[in-house]
Write a structure and sequence with these properties.
Radius of gyration: 32 Å
Largest sheet: 2 strands, antiparallel
Order of helices and strands: HEHHEHEHHHEHHHHHHHEEH
Number of strands: 6
Shape: elongated
Distance between the termini: 119 Å
């Protein structure tokens, strides 16, 4: 009996060993498929999935930026998880050492990584829409459709001329898939947060609404490229507004003409018919010349108190200005500047 039992036991041990080896093989393969580091970019990279991207496009993106060890393993697991037919738009991080399972779980759940948007040095609505479209999934047309809609702008407390003052230049974290209307709702919350009681009180002391402060700040920033002159220039224009003197701001004429590159304002430019021409019309123009910076806005709220009523670019072309209290003094400054323009043959 003992001789018959031993071969039988040996056979069972062999079967058990083979079974364990098979299970271990599957386990090792499963670990590689699911949990083993599958991507090794040098730093965190991002894949962008819009409504036009399909699974093959995603795999191409991963291959190009994320250095996958075995892209076929990612494809197999994605198929098992039925991801290709359930893709979600978004911006997703691919971190060094990330596994196939972790990435696919993020993709399937739509677990995006927020992106940071900025919009500095913007003049026109078209420029703003283009800048935002470069950073988000929305199109330029999506944004323009809203900020050119008078009823929509009015619902936010603005006009189509003033709507860009809603955008306070800063860095904001948003999801890449944010829609145009949700973006403007977010900007309205940021705008309301920016205009604190302290800033509102300062605007009231100047006799302006927040929108009017932004309009004047936009003129100040177009008038001088030297930031430390902002409070001086702001104070000058406030002096003119209080006395009912037309601003006679050259940047408003450039805006009316549609050419900010003008180096010399001629009499023919001063005659252009436009509500933005502050040589023809007193008070502030109907909208800003650009999206003013926070520093520009605060320079109006914290403007310098002085008696200047006139300014003229310095003849050394430093970007700075000569300021004057009287017209006679201003004319002397202007004559020196015009003489230098002539000497340099600037027409």
């Amino acid at each position: 009996m003992e001789k018959q039992y031993r071969p039988k036991r040996s056979f069972l041990i062999l079967l058990l060993t083979l079974f364990i080896l098979i299970i271990a093989g599957f386990g090792f393969r499963g670990y590689g498929l699911l949990y083993k580091p599958a991507f090794q970019p040098q730093q965190t990279q991002f894949v962008y999935i819009d409504e036009k991207k399909d699974f093959n496009d995603l795999c191409d993106q991963l291959f190009q930026i994320a250095q996958p060890h075995h892209i076929n393993n990612f494809k197999r697991l994605a198929t098992l998880m039925k991801y290709p037919e359930n893709m979600k738009t978004g911006r997703y991080a691919v971190e060094p050492g990330m596994s196939n399972l972790t990435l696919l779980n993020n993709l399937r759940r739509g677990q995006q990584t927020a992106t940071r948007i900025t919009f500095n040095n913007i003049r026109l609505k078209e420029d703003l829409a283009e800048r935002l479209a470069e950073q988000l999934m929305i199109s330029k047309e999506d944004i323009l459709r809203l900020i050119d809609d008078s009823a929509y702008c009015e619902s936010l407390g603005f006009s189509t001329e003033t709507i860009i003052t809603l955008f306070i230049p800063n860095t904001y974290e948003v999801y890449w898939t944010l829609s145009a209307d949700r973006l403007l709702e977010r900007m309205k919350r940021e705008y309301d947060a920016f205009w604190t009681d302290k800033r509102l009180d300062k605007a009231k002391a100047v006799g302006m609404t927040p929108v009017e402060v932004s309009i004047l700040a936009s003129i100040v920033e177009e008038e001088t490229a030297v930031a430390d002159e902002y409070p001086v220039v702001a104070g000058l224009y406030i002096n003119r507004l209080k006395r009912g003197i037309p601003l006679q701001a050259d940047p408003t004429v450039k805006f009316a003409v549609g050419d900010f590159s003008l180096q010399r304002i001629l009499f023919e430019h001063l005659e252009i018919e436009s509500p933005y021409n502050t040589y023809k019309y007193a008070g502030l123009p109907p909208g800003p010349l650009r999206i003013p910076s926070i520093r520009g806005i605060d320079s109006v709220l914290d403007h310098m108190n002085h008696n200047y009523l006139y300014m003229c670019a310095k003849e050394d072309f430093s970007g700075r200005h000569n300021f004057a209290v009287t017209l006679a003094e201003h004319n002397r400054n202007a004559n020196r500047y015009r003489a230098e323009l002539n000497r340099r043959n600037i027409r």
